């Protein structure tokens, strides 16, 4: 079974073989290199190449090319790269999840901006890419921006990568892209893996509309406010959750969204221990309170279901607004939180709230 798999991998590179002589010529004595589906950027050792030597299983041996070699061999219809900022998507775990275009851009760039040069260095070493790396992360991006801008204005090709996925999506890059746009410098996306889209596609929850929330605020009050907005939204909500904060997240969401709201915990996507746990928030709280999972987590919660024609009455609106204001929310925030549950326009709800509670008694700063 295993040999058949190797045959299928190597077949495109095979050639008819004459009878073997006593000693095969050098070009026939080779090793088959391939990337197993579980090879992960996060499990690379100091020797990141995974090579398996296989004995001949027919009268000849087979030679397989690596992705980086194939990227060099295939002609590009795009021609030489033009100067500009390239936002390059990189694997979120599985090293096979990188495009030939991404490899070509990374090889051709004058410099690669990297969130963590040690982490990205493993990826570049794996694909034999020798382009210089320059650290670019949330703690130094404001200091680096002008120097990078100067290089771009000088006609250089600058590639930006994050530790995993697309740069600028809950990762450094947004401000640099905005700076380039403001200075008429081309910003070119090189699409690649995305934890958001990967999790959505396999979640089983509605994907026609969704809201990407990302990481929640650290401050408890702001975090609760954000969760209340999400709880009243009809679209699928997508969060990034650190593993050590999963129990806290499930405790807060189950109380705000309700115990029976469906959720999906997508963990270690594309890696060896990939897992999609599906159930209700209440069940998730119970299951994950028993053990803390490891690895990156993308957590999805189904949107609020509103039956056709269902809406809050004026008295219900007043009660909802009054409860939120008594909890310390501003008038405008209370209106924002209740608006998704009614067909009334937000301006009309605000007028109702002003009439009922008055601006001065609401601690509203807007």
Automatic annotation (TrEMBL):
InterPro entries xref list: 4pyrrol_Mease, 4pyrrol_Methylase_sf, 4pyrrole_Mease_sub1, 4pyrrole_Mease_sub2, rRNA_ssu_MeTfrase_I, SAM_MeTrfase_RsmI_CS
A Pfam family annotated for this UniProt entry: TP_methylase
Residues annotated as domain Tetrapyrrole methylase: 85-284
CDD domains: RsmI
Keywords: Cytoplasm, Methyltransferase, rRNA processing, S-adenosyl-L-methionine, Transferase
Protein name according to UniProt: Tetrapyrrole methylase domain-containing protein
Provenance organism: Rehmannia glutinosa (Chinese foxglove)
